[in-house]
Amino acid sequence: MILDQFPTLRGLDTASQIQLSAELWDLAMDAEAKFTPGVLAALEDRVAYNESHPDEVFTAAEVSTHLAELKREIDARRKRG
Question: What predicted TM-score, i.e. pTM, was given to this entire model?
Fold first, then answer.
């Protein structure tokens, strides 16, 4: 697993993990990455699953709202000490 090569990434909070994944995706797209048949198949499987299970999929707005709520909770816990 590539993640094992970067152990400090496991310590990132959820918002940072999501941001990192988005930045890595953008980086790969900027590099005009060549997708192997296996990667393409995995992406197609994910899209098909999401389309057949819409109740398990979150919109970008829902993710942003959830992250904002989580941040507020963390900030409140820090203030309580």
Answer: 0.42
